[in-house]
Amino acid sequence: MRVLVTGGAGFIGANTCRELSIRPEVESVIALDDLSTGFVENLAGLPARLVTGSILDRDLLDGLVDRVDAVVHLAARPSVPRSLADPVASHEANATGTLYVLEACRRAGTYVVAASSSSVYGSVAALPKHEDLPTRPMSPYAASKLAAEGQVLAYRSAFGVPTLALRFFNVYGPMQSVGHAYAAVIPAFIDAALRGAPLTVHGDGTQSRDFTYVGSVAQVLADAVIRRVTSETPVNLAYGNRVSLLALIDRLAAVLERPVEVEHVAPRVGDVRESQADHTRLSTLFPTVRPVPLDEGLAATVRWYQELSRYAPAAMA
Ligand code: NAD
Q1: Digit-coded pLDDT (tens) for 108-163
Q2: Which of 132, 202, 244, 245 is exposed most, by the fewest CB atoms within 10 A?
Q3: What structural domains does the chain harbor?
Q4: How far is the C-alpha of 148 from the C-alpha of 100, rounded, in Å?
Q5: Could you tell me if the CB of 36 is within 6 A of ligand 1?
């Protein structure tokens, strides 16, 4: 089987290319990425072929989709704050881009699994979040992911395209980018801790997240394409572990075997307060995937960042 991974040079994309390339069922992997937030280096040493271009280029997409049996659609302009800075760019990449991917898959009759986001639940307070809850996006990013997810489901029912929409929660692990204003919380915390700087917490730190190790996400995505798993409803991709940021900091300090300093700043606009997935559907569809526990995933992630040259002892001095 040949697989196209859009956003394949990004954090989740490159981890997925790695997982796909070790599966015996997969003959070849193509990564399509415009390198807006992804990196060529993420694919170093992998047999995946990188095509540099945009999902907004419909001719390019058609040509690539014709050459594969399945698509993992991850390309997007990620992050809530980035969407507050430029809502139209987020809509174009996330919503319109997904529509173009679906059109290419409709024409070729190709399977597609696509990344949605837990941010679609937005201000809905119920916990854990199960997929039949209403959606109330609190940011242009969340709204663009909801529009994309709606199209993924609509293409399945209207045109019979085999699709699966997975709502990722907070994914973390090696290759997640850091050192910019839009960094996700775990890489930002690890980066600060390794530099000996205080960890910046927005608000009081009691807000919770459901963290999923990227290796577990990549396993679900590989399994989805190999078994062509589809669903008429969205499916949460997280395992129901609700951890406050303060608890996360304690666990990170335990992994690092030293205390870390914390600095509280104002809460961020568009951020949800609590997050925890109901994983009943996920576990039913993917019964063999065993999620990596948080402490193990954190330790692997810290090791990966420590191996980056900028955290070498000389650079930290
Ligand atoms: P990322 O920024 O590392 O990956 C996105 C990739 O898409 C990047 O490599 C980027 O260069 C590429 N890209 C952006 N616009 C493109 C375009 N027009 N054409 C081609 N490539 C383009 O982010 P990620 O965390 O790996 O996110 C992957 C997917 O998962 C996204 O759809 C994101 O919305 C979704 N998601 C991620 C999380 C998380 O916790 N990381 C949570 C919820 C949803």
Answers
A1: 999 999 999 999 999 999 999 999 999 999 999 999 999 999 999 999 999 999 99
A2: 132
A3: 2-172+212-237 (3.40.50.720)
A4: 10
A5: yes
